[in-house]
Amino acid sequence: MPTILITGASQGIGRAVAQAFATLPDARLALVARSEERLRETCELARGLGAEAHAFPCDVADEAAVEAMAQSVRAALGAPDAIVNNAGLFRTGPVVDTTVEDFDRQVAVNLTSAFMVTRAFLREMLNRGSGHIFYMASVASLRAYPGAVAYCAAKHGLLGLARAMREETRARGLRVTAILPGATWTPSWYGSDTPPERLMPPEDVAQAILDAWRMSDRTVVEELLLRPQEGDI
Prior knowledge:
Elements: E1 3-7, H1 12-21, E2 28-33, H2 36-48, E3 52-57, H3 63-77, E4 82-85, H4 100-128, E5 131-136, H5 149-169, E6 174-181, H6 202-214, E7 223-226
Parallel strand pairs: 1-2, 1-4, 2-3, 4-5, 5-6, 6-7
C-alpha cells in the first residue's frame, strides 16, 4: 500500500503524475498544491482510477505551511514512501528587469520548497531505510536560456540538491531521482503560439517517473533527461 506525496499536483505534470500513481494497486496519494479547488479536481480524478487520494492545500515555499502540511500528512497517512517534488514556477524576463523579489520567489518555489518538503519527512524515511525522492528539474538545469535567469539558477540548484541528496542517503536505502524534462504541454505554455504537438505530453513525464519507481530496490535512475522529439524550443 504505497503512499505517494506529490507537490504541484493541481495541474500539468503534477496532475499527470497523480493519475499515473493512482493506477497502482492500493495507492494512497497525498496531493499538495496552493489551489484547493484544482487540487480537489485531481483528487477526484485519482479516486476514479481506484486510488485513495487526499488534498493538502499548502504553499510549499512557506516553511510554516510545509511543517503544518507534513503533520497533517503524517496524521492521515503516515510518512510517504515516495515524494515527487514537482512544484514549480516559470517566469521570464531580462536580467535588468528581474527584481530581487522575482528572483527570490522563483528560487523559493523551484528549489527551496523541494528542500523543505524533503526535510520534513526525511528522518522517518532514513529510519525506515527505504523511500524514493524525485526532483522535477529541467533541461534548464543543464543549459542556460536567455530571459530566464531566475528559473535557470533555481533549476541548476535543484539538480545540485538532488545529486547531494543521492550521495547523502544512498547508504541508508533511499533512492533519489532527478527528472529533467524539456518543453512539456502544461499551463506555462497555454496561450503561446507553440502547437501542443511540438511539446511532450505531461503523461509521458509521469510515466517515466512511475517506471523509475517500479524498479527493484537494487537499481536507481539517478537522472533522466527527456526532450521533445524535435529537440528543445
